[in-house]
Amino acid sequence: MSVGLEHYLVLSAVLFCIGLYGALTKRNAVIILMCIELMLNAVNISLVAFSRYVVPTLLTGQVFAIFVMVVAAAEVAVGLAIILAIYRGLTDIDASNINLMKW
Amino acid sequence: MGLAAAYWIMAVVAVLAALGVVFLRNVFRAALSLVLCFITVAGLYITLSADFLAAVQILVYVGAISVLIILAVMMTREVQQGSPANRLKIPAFIVAAVVLGIMIYTVTATSWQVASAAPLAPTTVPLAGKLFSESGFILPVEIAAMLILAAILGAIVIAREK
Questions:
Q1: Residue B120: CB partners within 8 Å, gap ≥ 6?
Q2: Is A90 an 8 Å CB contact of chain B?
Q3: Residue A92 confidence class, pLDDT cut points 50, 70, 90
Q4: Domains of chain A
Q5: Which residues of B fall within a CB distance of 8 Å from A99?
Q6: Tell me, what DSSP letter sits at residue B85?
Q7: What does the pLDDT read at residue A1?
Q8: In which region does residue A55 sit, left (phi positive, over 0), alpha (psi from -120 to 50) or beta (all else)?
């Protein structure tokens, strides 16, 4: 059985939904950030799969994946800095207890 | 044949590692599971003949981002009694399952227009041409550089001791 575009897209959907479930349910802020990374990776897989199977000689999907990686790196740096700042102030990173800006 | 075998191995390991990120009790082990998932994603890029992206995935995700995450796990050591779930467990599971069902249905029901041309073999030179040529993505590349600079400065300012 040869592997085609649908296989990669279904795998990407499965990884995305695992990350979505984790990001919605976890209380540890670091784990939430990890789940978001998981979702970004899933999106990257589908972008590269589209690039490979739909436009094999143009590489447009791979360029998009590179920009997703850039934004993910920026996001994880700022996110972890925010988590460390919160931890320093509250000595807690439980997302259920961080309600300073809750109205 | 070898490609299909590689795909199935990578896919199974990736899904198991992702489940480990969500369901492992120990936060540090969850982080290591995430690293394993990143490595399998790099393998998937190789099966998609995206060699440059696979190298970048190893360097950026396995090398840099995982180190940052593990550092954050260690600096917030005192609070990690497992990774408990909040009250939204069942609604979130329903949402994730519905989204997964919709996505799998649309993916399998659509007839994709797959091109039959062979993929480019080493992608580094064509990718550089795409990114840095005048008719390519040179403006987004410059904006991305500004974004990275701003993000790193912001991270330093936010995380600095007062």
A1: A56, A57, A59, B49, B126
A2: no
A3: confident
A4: 5-90 (1.10.287.3510)
A5: none
A6: B
A7: 64
A8: beta
Single-letter amino acid code for the residue at B11: A
CB B83 within 8 Å of CB A96? no
Which position has the token pair 């990686």? A69
Compute how many other C-beta atoms are within 10 angstroms of the C-beta atom of residue B116.
6
Closest CB to B83: pick one of A31, A37, A38.
A31
Cα–Cα distance between B31 and B28 in angstroms, integer? 5
Q: pLDDT band for A38, please (50, 70, 90 cuts).
A: very high
Query: What is the rounded CA–CA span in Å between residue B157 and residue B144?
Result: 20
Q: Do B60 and A18 touch (CB under 8 A)?
A: no
Kindly identify which residue of chain B lies nearest to residue A75, measuring between CA atoms: B151
Q: Please state the pTM of the whole predicted model.
A: 0.92
Q: Please report the pLDDT score of residue B22 as a whole number.
A: 92
The residue to which tokens 């994880």 are assigned: A76
Long-range contacts of A87-96 (CB under 8 A, 24+ apart): A87/B75, A87/B76, A87/B79, A88/B161, A91/B78, A91/B79, A92/B79, A93/A28, A93/A29, A93/A30, A93/B76, A93/B79, A94/A27, A94/A28, A94/A29, A94/B79, A95/A26, A95/A27, A95/A28, A95/A29, A95/A32, A95/B86, A96/A27, A96/B86
Q: Does A98 touch chain B (CB under 8 A)?
A: no
Counted residue by residue, chain A has a size of: 103
Across the A:B interface, residue pairs with CB atoms under 8 Å apart total 243
